[in-house]
């Protein structure tokens, strides 16, 4: 018996009856030989971690564009915080921690430079629209490894696709990541807003603070404990009604005070214009795209989608450097 088979049996004996077991995975789009050490979801986690799109997250905006300071979150640190929250919940509920981690690490791989400003810009100019969760799946299915994709399991791809509020994953592990994503961004975006002087802890309304706490640490702890205690043994992943209501109010508060704050978002219109300009440039100069993307276009992919693939994969820094190279006279460069 291989180590992988022993681990699969351990999952079957130890994990919750509601957990997704590696041995019962619905599999990959392309069949391949099993690893003798790692179950399928652990293998998926490793593939995502070693991918180029994962490494690029370190230089992609989370909320604050070009913040002054080393401690503001990036898309990579957001991803790691989502993963940690999700793993804590999964371990407490005896769910499949490998599956949770794979979904969490992959959920934002398709995100644009400049955060949601970049996403809005591509969605506005591309006739096919643009959603980062759909692009994340496209990244792991078609764009990684020079067009070969990572050939991940169906459960991981489902969790990545359905991590947003408007949709629901088919596994409980995917539901854990979906909630963990919201917990993470509310927690760390408020922490960054306090760091940036946009908010103070005292600004949190009493109707929220009295339920889930008055510090970022208290709120994070409360959210995770509430999910674990409310979900335990139920065959579902959810918050209590009281805490879920407080979270919704906190989210609305964050939109009013941070996500739509002119001070926090003063540079976003510039970022959107930059992305829009690059889109139109490459649409008219398609031959400047990498060969693997051109090859995909030759096989029938629309050029507008291919241009979105290229731009959405850029880091903030690379997008700015390309824009400068194309449109700023060299004598003006700082």
What does this structure look like?
- By secondary structure, this protein is mainly alpha-helical.
- It is about 60% helix and about 0% strand.
- It contains 16 helices and no strands.
- The chain has helices at about 5-15, 40-50, 50-55, 75-95, 95-105, 115-125, 130-145, 155-160, 170-195, 205-210, 215-230, 240-260, 270-285, 290-300, 305-315, 315-325.
- The N and C termini lie far apart (about 60 Å).
- The stretches of 5 or more residues where confidence is low (pLDDT under 50) are none
Radius of gyration: 21 Å
Total strand segments: 0
**DSSP helix fraction:** 55-70%
Following the backbone from N to C, one meets helices and strands in this order, namely HHHHHHHHHHHHHHHH
Our measurement of the CA-to-CA distance between the termini, rounded to an integer number of angstroms, reads 62 Å
Mean pLDDT: 94
Q: How does the helix and strand content classify structurally?
A: mainly alpha
**Main beta-sheet strand count, sense and barrel state:** none
